[in-house]
Amino acid sequence: MQAGFSMLEVGAVQRKNQINILYKNILDGSVAAIGYWFIGYMFAFGSSAGGFIGIQSDLIFLQSIRNNAACDDNGQNCGADDFATFFFQWAFAGAAATIVSGAVAERTKFEAYLIFSFVITVFIYPVVVHWGWGSGFLSAWGALNGPMLSRTETSRGMIDFAGSGIVHMVGGVAGLMGAIVIGPRKGRFVGGKTVEFKNSSTTMMALVQTVRCFRSSIPITYYDVAITEGKSGDF
User: Fold this and answer.
1) Is the pLDDT of residue 16 over 70?
2) What's the sign of the alpha-carbon dihedral 53, 57, 60, 65?
3) DSSP, res 40
4) Whole-prediction pTM value?
5) What is the rounded distance in angstroms from the CA atom of residue 191 to the CA atom of residue 193?
6) pLDDT tens per residue across span 115-130
7) How distant, in Å, are the alpha carbons of 27, 65, 138 from that of 133?
8) Distance CA 141, CA 154 (A)
């Protein structure tokens, strides 16, 4: 996903800002990995505190995953908390942050953007994940630490399919707010007139959209399989 967003954004910005936007996309994944490993995963998938946020000390630095606490005595039959789940969710956390980098491209200082990237992957995005994919107040997937799709009064029944709301809406709203607060690019509007900025590569932008159509099928297939493999009767 980071490669796709990098190609899209580097094609959309001016040539002088290509290196800046590439650095932002590369470091988005790195910052997301550190933040999500540190405490973000706990906020997303820890035991629910009132349906708002996950709090579970043994998930800080993924301690319980490293110690195979979610597995049986033979290290098999691991539960939802494992490194594969962390890797999958980390990729989405980086995607949510990278959506914002495109919305505020050519508008922010490098250092300021890195601070924002850390905040969204450590707190903002994980909290929303907890609401919908964890055991939060909206989730149908084990709401308030109960069984999946329990249909109890604490299970609100919201199912976010392939991150359409949790990932893309969070990134989109954050990007919109950032663009509104920061304002237009310097020199974009002069004397009440719009100054045209030439993008770097329309070809690159078109190419990446083709690649992303294929890439998007991967998480969608993942959720299709999760729903159809013995779980369809729960709906």
Assistant:
1) yes
2) negative
3) I
4) 0.82
5) 5
6) 999 999 999 999 999 9
7) 26, 18, 9
8) 11
